[in-house]
Write a structure and sequence with these properties.
Blueprint: H1 6-22, H2 27-63
Helix pairs in contact: 1-2
Length: about 60
């Protein structure tokens, strides 16, 4: 997956969640949305981990 915009990804994830909670789409569409949602969640988790690593590195650099 390409580099993500975290905020836009979270917004899309919220949209997907709302659609799935309503339950007004077909089973096939639910599966597609669920798959998209899990990919977005994974990408967001990775982005957060990378940001945390950068912050840790910067904090250590400032303490040296």
């Amino acid at each position: 997956m390409e580099k993500i915009n975290y905020e836009k990804s979270l917004t899309r994830l919220e949209e997907i969640t709302a659609i799935l909670e309503k339950g007004e789409v077909s089973l096939d569409e639910m599966i597609k949305l669920y798959s998209e949602g899990t990919q977005i969640a994974s990408a967001c988790t990775k982005a957060l981990s990378e940001a945390q690593a950068k912050i840790t590195t910067l904090s250590q650099d400032n303490n040296d």
